[in-house]
Amino acid sequence: MLMHLIILYLFNLLNGTSLPAFARTQACQSAFSSDVHGSCIKLISCIFRGGKPAGTCNYGLSTCCVAFLGINIGSKLPISTFTKNSFTQNLAMFVVKRASPFYCQIRVDFKSFNVGGPDQNGICTNGWNVTGQADTNVPTICGLNDGQHVYLNFDNFTPIKMTINFNDSDDWAIKVTQIKCNDQENLAPTGCLQYFPEASGQVESFNFQTVSSVAPVTSTQTTYQLANLDYYACIGTSTNTYSQITWTKGVGTTNYYFVLTSNVALIPSNFVGTAAAAEYNGDCTGTGSPTNDYVEIIDGTFTDIDGTSRTETQFCGVGFPPAVTCKCSTLSNINSIILS
Question: Is 132 buried (19+), middle (13-18) or exposed (0-12) by CB count in 10 A?
């Protein structure tokens, strides 16, 4: 079972009306470690939140406040960084506490993350887990995930607890940013595990790796796919509306940039990555589907290999059309791609 994809998106704006910006806590770099970032706040606030001063910021007027180091770290800071080097055991546990009632959400950035990998069934033995959040669609994450991110919502004042099981050879650094409830520019829509407000960018499946081939999965080989994924990656902003999103092949990838099938080893290599190798809807989820894995783009319109216009919602197989356009209602300024 394989799920291995990276696709590029570009959306067209209808207007550029912006909402007023809200004051946010600025990030700062610890004076003691280039890998650690904290919150640029007043010294008294740092002490009150249980943080540790790590240099100055804001032209010396504020303190760069970081989380205390230890086996079980707790942070009430708006911005915190946790790294492998902060822990002396192969189990890291850190708790994110809501800084105040004005914060509703956190963004977790995997600045670097290379921890274990899924087995032949897509199960992570080691990896990142989270509990205490209001969201229910958060998977265990392992493998190579540099630059990935997730959004989590606070469940009232229940702390969000993250754990990472890792080996000595693994490496990881995670940045956590709390987002205010009225920060419309940065707050992800409800239900979105990932959120891309930029006008263009790339969406990658977790543990995506650029490869020149994908071997069949056996009892002794692993897969790139993480099991039990079912989440939204949302595109757009709360300060702009747009007319459409266009999805294309990811930049800097091989023909194996879109693999959602367990039969990839049976497909000729010169056929992989082409529009002719793409499959849709019933082929992805029907009784003939080997995996029930797909990417969902609501009413995605594209030109088929026979030159006709075609509209589908679920995409799988080992290829992708040259361009898939989602024509979105102007009443909704958020669209999404479902990875299942």
Answer: middle
User: Of 163, 196, 229, which residue constitutes the final position of a domain?
Assistant: 196
Q: For residue 198, what are the contacts with CB-CB under 8 A and spacing of at least 6?
A: none
Question: Contact at 8 Å (CB) between 75 and 123?
Answer: no
d(CA 248, CA 141): 25
Cross-strand partners of 29:
37
Residues with Cβ within 8 Å of residue 165, at least 6 apart in sequence = 90, 91, 115, 116, 125, 126, 127
Q: Is position 201 within any domain? A: no
283-295 b/e (C-beta count within 10 Å ≥ 16 → b): bbbeeebebebbb
Quick one: tokens of 132? 């205490």
> Distance between CA atoms of 142 and 123, rounded to whole angstroms?
9
Q: Do residues 10 and 44 both lie within one domain?
A: no
Write down which residue in 196, 223, 250 finishes a domain: 196
Q: How many domains does the chain have?
A: 2
Same structural domain for residues 180 and 287? no
Residue pLDDT, tens place only, 191-236? 889 998 887 888 888 998 876 655 554 445 557 778 778 888 888 7
The 10 Å Cβ neighbour count of residue 249 is: 20
pTM of the predicted model as reported, rounded to 2 decimal places: 0.80
Q: Which residue has the higher pLDDT, 164 or 26?
A: 164
Residues spanned by the domain of 316: 4-17+240-339
- Give the tens place of pLDDT for each residue, 128-158: 999 999 987 799 999 999 999 999 999 999 9
- Buried-state track 134-145, b at ≥16 Cβ within 10 A, e below 16: ebeebbbbbbbb
HEC readout, 49-111: CCCEEEEEECCCCEEEEECCCCCEEEECCCEEEEEHHHCCCCEEEEEECCCCCCEEEEEEEEE
* Same domain, yes or no: 10 and 38: no
**In a domain? residue 74:** yes
**Average pLDDT in the chain:** 78
Categorize the per-residue pLDDT at 329 as very low, low, confident or very high, splitting at 50, 70 and 90: very low
